[in-house]
Amino acid sequence: MLMVLAVHVDGASVGLPEPMGDIASMTARDVWRIAVETLAIIGVNCFTMISGYFGIRLRWRGVLSFLFQCVFYSVGICTVYAIFFPCKVSWTGWLESWLVLTHTDLWYVPAYFGLMLLSPLLNAWLGALSRRTFTGVLAVFIVFNLLCGWWMHGAFNPTGYTLVQLVLVYMIARYIRLHVSIEGIRRHRKTICAVYVASLVAIAAMAVYMPPLQAFAYNSPAVLLSTVSFFLIFLSFDFTSRRINYIARSAFAVYLIHKAPLVWVNIMRPAVIHLWSTLSLPLFTLGAAGVIVAFYLVAIAIDPLRRRMFDIVWRTVSVKRAAA
User: I need a surface site. Which of 18, 90, 176, 189 has the fewest CB within 10 A?
Assistant: First the structure.
């Protein structure tokens, strides 16, 4: 999620340069933007890989919790704006804020919900495949996405902002969980680190010679390679942290808050653009880091309330189901 925020601070806010091979014309700010995007573009893929590695277990509580979280922030933010800035919110807009799967600018919400619904089929199917068959199916699916989706801009998955991309990443993560041992990953950690560095170089080189939308596509071969190698590096570690786990519980809330249209258009993006246009590059970097930390602090402060409210709702629903 830190990577997702960094991408939104970088390319989504201040825009990415398009040198198209003209390296001599690049400025320090151009290099900075490409470097940040190169390091952070794998955030969405990694977020999905976590779900794939541990496996989504579709339960009523999980489905309702996901929808409740999305509605809580969408309607909550819209309601706050309607109270304090009524000129920015119409009744139609407020009503549409409840429709988090159909009337939303957050593409990941309906896409991930679709992945949740497909997860029982994916888990059963992938779990029943032999390693050889799984390898072949996954290889064909990856090549099909790279060739027909990324390279030829196929409508089914041209840049990775689709359910198809989430299914692809989920399958890769399931393969790692089912057929790759942690011991083997640790034995080859140096090689994996070298692959990760090489993939970063490849992403940056593509960004210099290709349009940004294609170079930094989630289904780009270099981005996928960077995602997998980065994920494997962290799998090779062995540590636990209650603090990290506590923060992680609010990670998705960070996305739902800062990317909510009213927050994004009126607060997040204007603040980043203002810092970009008024500060030197080092000071902007510090300022952008401050913006990221601020959204994390807001999410960590608010999300416990959301969790307590959902617990109340779930207990109420459970009691009624038991009575029925």
Answer: 90
